[in-house]
Design a protein that fits this description.
Elements: H1 2-21, H2 27-38, H3 44-51, H4 55-67, E1 71-73, E2 85-87, H5 89-110, H6 115-132
Antiparallel strand pairs: 1-2
Helix pairs in contact: 1-5, 2-5, 3-4
Protein name: DNA-binding transcriptional regulator, MarR family
Keywords: DNA-binding
Organism: Streptomyces radiopugnans
Length: about 130
């Protein structure tokens, strides 16, 4: 089971790496842009958790996104220590362009799986993750 999950994950990652290279993004950068589009104002720690990387790795990813002008981060906050991060207009544009390439990969990966089986597969994957998760 584990081998097959890893094999599928590696195939997906390879295809995404190739497609995202054309948009000058890495998979972790793309993941951060997606999360920030869904939930503007996340912190470094939130993005690290959401993209399954360490905070240190997230900081490297975010630095690259900032340097490219794709995100902005507040320099201070009224509450707590976390500084909210947001997409810039350029970040929105880059995400939109890259998203169609990623969605095409996902569609290619599952196109031969009937919808009813796809629903069950997604539920089973969630169940497996929950069984091993924190």
């Amino acid at each position: 089971m584990g081998y097959r999950l890893k094999k599928a994950s590696a195939a997906l990652r390879g295809a995404m790496d190739k497609a995202l290279r054309e948009h000058d993004l890495t998979v972790p950068q793309y993941s951060c842009l997606e999360l920030l589009d869904e939930q503007p104002g996340l912190s470094n720690a939130d993005l690290a958790r959401g993209t399954f990387v360490t905070r240190q790795s997230a900081n490297v990813v975010l630095r690259g996104l900032k340097d490219a002008g794709l995100i902005t981060q507040a320099t201070s906050t009224d509450h707590g220590r976390s500084l909210p991060i947001h997409l810039t207009a350029a970040g929105q544009q880059r995400l939109h362009a890259a998203r169609s390439a990623v969605y095409a990969i996902e569609q290619r990966m599952v196109r031969s799986i009937p919808a009813r089986r796809m629903t069950a597969l997604l539920a089973d994957l969630d169940t497996m993750a929950e069984a091993l998760g924190p």
